[in-house]
């Protein structure tokens, strides 16, 4: 029992100084010439380079045969791999934040519409385009994409 308590105490001491929260990912502007973030480089006129370029535009989706008939809010996204590694893309990696700052998970509408972004791996320089939708009638403001470990990898304003 003493070894368990000492082990737990050691773990608590070692993790007490760890900062587990990551800085939020900068939001990419819907206007290609401007930055949406508040970085100093953007205000000086320099374009910020993002490892994963993400663009989004409001769109309408054709409902699939699996649709329950409910309202869907959709965006057409383009993901461009600007890294030197393979990039995994999956419709489950996306979420949409509306104008009221409510986050909507894309898994809520999976299979209910045609043209969703494919599950794929992008080589450096490649891009993928498709729809990302969530259930409900709302106006999309920001689209976020995570990596396979569900850490946020890219964010973009919706045009």
Which SSEs are present, and which pair or pack?
Layout: H1 2-16, E1 27-28, H2 40-43, E2 52-59, E3 72-81, E4 87-89, E5 94-98, E6 103-105, E7 120-122, E8 127-135, E9 140-146, E10 152-157
Parallel strand pairs: 1-10
Antiparallel strand pairs: 2-3, 3-8, 4-7, 5-6, 5-9, 9-10
What does this structure look like?
- The protein is mainly beta and 159 residues long.
- The protein has helices spanning 2-16, 40-43; strands at 27-28, 52-59, 72-81, 87-89, 94-98, 103-105, 120-122, 127-135, 140-146, 152-157.
- Helices cover 12% and strands 35% of the residues.
- It has a 5-stranded mixed sheet, with no helix packed on it. Strands 2-3-8 form a 3-stranded antiparallel sheet, with no helix packed on it. It has a two-stranded antiparallel sheet with strand order 4-7.
- Strand 5 (94-98) and strand 6 form a beta hairpin.
- It is globular.
- Residues 13-22 and 35-47 have low confidence and may be disordered.
- What composes the largest sheet? 5 strands, mixed
Q: How large is the share of residues in beta strands?
A: 35-45%
Compressed to H and E, one letter per element, the order equals HEHEEEEEEEEE
Distance between the termini: 59 Å
Number of helices: 2
| Average predicted confidence as pLDDT | 82
Q: Strands across the major sheet, in which order?
A: 1-10-9-5-6
Helical fraction equals 10-25%
**Secondary-structure content class:** mainly beta
Q: Total strand count, please?
A: 10
The shape, in one word, is: globular
Low-confidence stretches: 13-22, 35-47
Q: Using only CA atoms, what is the Rg?
A: 19 Å
């Amino acid at each position: 029992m003493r070894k368990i308590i000492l082990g737990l105490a050691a773990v608590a001491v070692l993790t007490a100084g760890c900062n587990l929260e990551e800085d939020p990912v900068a939001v990419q502007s819907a206007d290609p010439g401007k930055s949406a973030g508040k970085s100093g480089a953007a205000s000086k006129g320099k374009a910020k380079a993002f490892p994963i370029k993400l663009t989004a535009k409001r769109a309408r989706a054709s409902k699939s045969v699996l649709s329950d008939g409910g309202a869907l809010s959709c965006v057409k996204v383009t993901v461009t791999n600007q890294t030197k590694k393979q990039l995994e893309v999956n419709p489950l990696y996306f979420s949409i934040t509306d104008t009221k700052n409510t986050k909507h998970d894309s898994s809520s509408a999976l299979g209910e519409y045609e043209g969703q972004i494919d599950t794929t791996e992008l080589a450096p320089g490649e891009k993928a385009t498709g729809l990302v939708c969530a259930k409900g009638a709302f106006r999309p403001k920001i689209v976020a994409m995570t990596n396979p470990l569900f850490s946020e990898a890219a964010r973009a304003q919706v045009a």
